[in-house]
Amino acid sequence: MSTEFPSPDLPSPLPKSPVLQAAYRAKAAAATIAPLPRTPKDEALLAIADALQVRTREIVEANAEDVAQARANGTDEAVIDRLTLTRERIAAIADDVRKVAGLPDPVGEVIRGYTLPNGLDVRQVRVPLGVVGIIYEARPNVTVDAAALCLKSGNAVLLRGSSSAIASNRKLVEVIRDAVGGAGLPADAVQLVPGESRESVQELMRARGMVDVLIPRGGAGLIRTVVEQSTVPVIETGTGNCHVYVDAEADLAMAVEILINSKAHRVSVCNAAETLLVHKDIADAFLPLALAALADAGVTVHADPRVQAVAEREGSKAVVVPATAEDWETEYLSYDIAAGVVDSLEDAVAHIRLWTSGHTEAIVTTSQAAARRFTQLVDSTTVAVNASTRFTDGGQFGFGAEIGISTQKLHARGPMGLPELTSTKYIVTGDGHIRR
Amino acid sequence: MSTEFPSPDLPSPLPKSPVLQAAYRAKAAAATIAPLPRTPKDEALLAIADALQVRTREIVEANAEDVAQARANGTDEAVIDRLTLTRERIAAIADDVRKVAGLPDPVGEVIRGYTLPNGLDVRQVRVPLGVVGIIYEARPNVTVDAAALCLKSGNAVLLRGSSSAIASNRKLVEVIRDAVGGAGLPADAVQLVPGESRESVQELMRARGMVDVLIPRGGAGLIRTVVEQSTVPVIETGTGNCHVYVDAEADLAMAVEILINSKAHRVSVCNAAETLLVHKDIADAFLPLALAALADAGVTVHADPRVQAVAEREGSKAVVVPATAEDWETEYLSYDIAAGVVDSLEDAVAHIRLWTSGHTEAIVTTSQAAARRFTQLVDSTTVAVNASTRFTDGGQFGFGAEIGISTQKLHARGPMGLPELTSTKYIVTGDGHIRR
């Protein structure tokens, strides 16, 4: 299939930098796969899924090296758990790849199309971005997910994982490349960025013109570095200082359930709630219930004076400590929550606008007017009305897969699926049209 | 109207930098106008249009200062012409503002909406970007256009024009702010970036978190500087090394007409053609006609050896000089064109991919297969089939207005109208939904 399409020649000699060499190869591969229809891309994805299962033993062995090294380094068990690949997990990853194969192909979709008064036909059509760079931490499943999503959307991908997962990532990329090549597509569409040093990340960030977009996934420090230093366009992802606001009129039981789900369903993720704001008119009724439920869930409450006062008056069993300004901006990712009382919905909105990372904010209210006002005024990727913050997720939104959650306003905002891995081009067709 | 909506408090004390002060004020104004419906925004736009005409004399007088200064500096007459404002031109600018008022409001448009299997309603809704920074050269009409488009799309705008138009821009922004304030919207939604030094541009480029996007409009040097140095997300615009490719099978008269229109209809614009590529099978028939027409249009041809050979053999009256590698990448913006013969459509595509700035490429062909292949393989903002490159333009595409032409792949590609000045947010609505 690939030989039907011309691909740009590689420059000769290639640049000395292994990172730039990889980028050149990715660009050539991207030009080859960009015009492909769906079938050859899906065939490559199914080949990857099969290969992951056929070669599971190789992958588990390579992963065991990383896990042993992590143990020797005294790595936290939660991190080791995310790093570990088992037969079951690999089967689940392979199934995810098959699901991506089953998703509609975004490439070729006509977003807008019309005929101008002069008869010229205008079509705006989705096309791949080109070369996508992903910088991520020690989760080898991201290696496979990102490769599958980029291939499906006609992009080449440069993967820059954590050095703590290097053996796993090398093996996974070897398996993927073999499968891609075996399916007749250019293996260079999926590459690990060579080099484990920070310099290789720096080179990637400066490969403007070769790499079309960088998506950093991971801790806030990594994301800030990439955002500030990259000359390649970046999509900022993931930091989530999410808020739950309980309005003056709210179903108390619903509010408790949404609060606990938002905070404690899974604390280490970006769509977990980190701050609770309560309208003063409902504080006396709601806070005792909320504090008891938070205590049951093992959550420490970093409270403003008004929340502290309620806790003391009630003799709450909750662990309550005074909140500082720092608490309002902290993404705990732990069994902690900041909590405060506000005088109005507008004050809640002002607090959120000041401190939020712009990920997800929820309101619990029975008032249609309050719901409408909150959704109008809050400017975050997702505003949830009477629903948990935990729904901000590509899988939950029905995208079938997710490459990350954009917290920026340009290009994509919120969970990013396949369409967010595309750009568009205009095709204008006439029969000799010139401008008068 | 504006007092209905809370706006974030300005920090106290304000930062010392006048540029950052302006950015803070813009951010506060943006929060106020973002949730506004269409009517108050349109009323402000109509007030601006009326004020431009009522206060025409003031504007012409201020502009006369700039023009006098430009003459004293020995500025090129073409530049002075673009700088000059007359009563007629101001009336035309005011009419453009009225046209923007008549365009549909992109804010609030539901891009996608569906109900999940669990009953949660998901809506993806257009919202303003926030604060838009525009850096541009000596065209005072851009001041008004940009302000109108940003206001209509609910954004605040920071305008950084050329120092050579400073008196005109100050007066125009004064007139606009008076009208905006008079219509009950915050005047700080439209501000001139204080300071004429390069440092003020540097500050603007580092105002990440305050400014949501920077759009540089102007020369290639300006755009490159902003793209490379800004930590604020940038939309790259404008450079156009556009190609016209005449395929093996083409209507010769149509090809000549499209070539001449693409090259010479207006040479100083980004959608003018800069390179002609001709398939070898049609070169002997087409090139004599093309060279004669280019000569008539006063265009100098920078020719590869095969085009030179035809010119010599025919004794063409065209001015033909040898092309160097530099010619293939030059955006002349003058009565010059590079011209070469290619062996195949694939070679034309490879040439274009290597040298293009990715703006607009045209194919002239009678072959449906060639048209399809060219549009699939060429990766530029716009691919024109049997039409002039000159159609890549927001006005021509029917957008009603244009803030620039993006030549990057992220966020927007090609002519940018009102929807391209927006982001989106998700609104998810349940009745107590939590994640299981």
What this model shows, in words?
Two copies of one chain form a homodimer. Chain A has 436 residues and is α/β, with parallel strands linked by helices. Chain A has 15 helices and 16 strands. In chain A, helix 5 (87-102) packs parallel to helix 6. The longest helix of chain A is centred in the first third of the chain and has 17 residues, at 38-54. The radius of gyration of chain A is 24 Å and the shape is globular. Mean pLDDT of chain A is 93; it is low at 1-8. The interface between A and B is large, with 75 and 75 residues. Strand 13 (382-387) of chain A pairs parallel with strand 16 (422-433) of chain B. Chains A, B: This is Gamma-glutamyl phosphate reductase. Chains A, B: Residues 19-308 form the Aldehyde dehydrogenase domain. Chains A, B: It is found in: Cytoplasm.
Rg of chain A (CA only):
24 Å
- Our measurement of the CA-to-CA distance between the termini of chain A, rounded to an integer number of angstroms, reads 43 Å
CATH-wise, what's the superfamily of the largest domain in chain A? Aldehyde Dehydrogenase, Chain A, domain 1
As laid out across the biggest beta sheet of chain A, the strand order is 10-9-11-8-7-12-13
DSSP strand tally of chain A: 16
Beta-strand portion of chain A reads: 15-25%
Helical fraction of chain A: 40-55%
The best one-word shape of chain A is: globular
The number of helical runs of chain A is 15
